[in-house]
Write a structure and sequence with these properties.
With about 140 residues, the chain is an alpha+beta fold. The chain has 2 domains: about 35 residues; about 100 residues, Immunoglobulin-like. It has 2 helices and 8 strands; from the N terminus they run ααββββββββ. The strands form 2 sheets. Strands 2-8-7-4-5 form a 5-stranded mixed β-sheet, with no helix packed on it. A 3-stranded antiparallel β-sheet has the order 1-3-6, with no helix packed on it.
């Protein structure tokens, strides 16, 4: 019983402490802005854009194909990556730091095993910009 009373008293004390906290406004001298704020003109940093050029969502794939990804950012793209997901198994297929962003994929294989005809595969393209912001997009294709 004593442990319960001590725990209750501690929680009560903590909640009173948090309720009595004073909200303060932070002001920053413009000469002290961070490099990130200066790079973005003081505005919000936008994440990079990333999309699939080929294949398209819902398409059927067979044989060896070239997966083509478009990525853009106002601060430049550091790299892109392609991940394959079959069921609950993920594999990082590859990274590409040079445009055009392309990955040659033998659709009969994932990183882990053979892909049977009729299997749905999720492709995830990820882009990282030179500020470290990350975006991704997913499409689904079916192995023929």
């Amino acid at each position: 019983m004593k442990k319960t009373n001590v725990l209750f008293a501690t929680l009560l004390l903590l909640s009173v402490s948090f309720v009595s906290c004073k909200k303060e406004t932070l002001t920053i001298d413009p000469s002290q802005q961070t490099n990130l704020a200066k790079r973005t003109g003081g505005g919000t940093t936008l994440a990079p854009t990333v999309s699939f050029l080929y294949p398209t969502n819902g398409s059927a794939v067979t044989g060896t194909i070239t997966v083509k990804i478009a990525a853009a950012s106002s601060v430049g793209i550091k790299n892109t990556s392609l991940m394959l997901t079959i069921g609950t198994s993920n594999c990082l297929f590859g990274n590409d730091a040079t445009a055009p962003y392309e990955y040659v994929w033998n659709t009969n294989q994932s990183c882990l095993s053979a892909i049977a005809p009729g299997t749905q595969v999720k492709l995830r393209a990820t882009a990282t910009d030179n500020n470290g912001s990350i975006s991704y997009t997913d499409i689904y294709v079916t192995k023929q």
